[in-house]
Amino acid sequence: xxGVTQTPRYLIKTRGQQVTLSCSPISGHxxxxxxxxxxxxxxxxxxxxxxxxxxxxxxxxxxxSGRQFSNSRSEMNVSTLxxxxxxxxxxxxxxxxxxxxxxxxxxxxxxxxVT
Amino acid sequence: AQTVxxxxxxMSVQEAETVTLSCTYxxxxxxxxxxxxxxxxxxxxxxxxxxxAYKQQNATENRFSVNFQKAAKSFSLKISxxxxxxxxxxFCALTLTNxxxxxxxxxxxxxxxxx
Lengths: 115, 115
Description:
heterodimer, A: seven-stranded mixed sheet, B: 12 strands
């Protein structure tokens, strides 16, 4: 079974641009969540989608948005990039959407660098 | 609000020895789950072990075990017979049963295994 696939692995963007990151969950998984990982803040929850609906949202500005398609694939978009958005963005999928009984499976992440 | 604190940014252990990583957390909820995740240089987060808060018995997975002290809100990870492949960043995490896949992570402990 293929794991969680995130594309691209690396991105370099300029401040003010926008970016879209993609995540393909494990086949059969309906929940996809996104995390931002930085050295200073650690991992911070961005949002979670379950069956195409955003179920939870972390404390990030509206520049961060996402969506989930009918095949459970998810995209995350960041508009008007700022230098502070440089981070590793991790996607995780799970079968039922409750991490306590349905472990998260993480992708390898997308490393975004904003210059 | 939920917080997870890992007070040891870096730890080292001799191969075949035992090491304990510390984690404390804070939540006013009574129903929650605790996890340890491992992130090797490949960047992919891997579940190491999980603990249900309502269970008093400490979880064990092969060489990995936890010491769960609910009253003290402490959740430490013990790695026995350390192996070179255990070298990684270790994250302690908490999730509530009513917030889907919103996990609260600590800032991580970097474990070095000395041959």
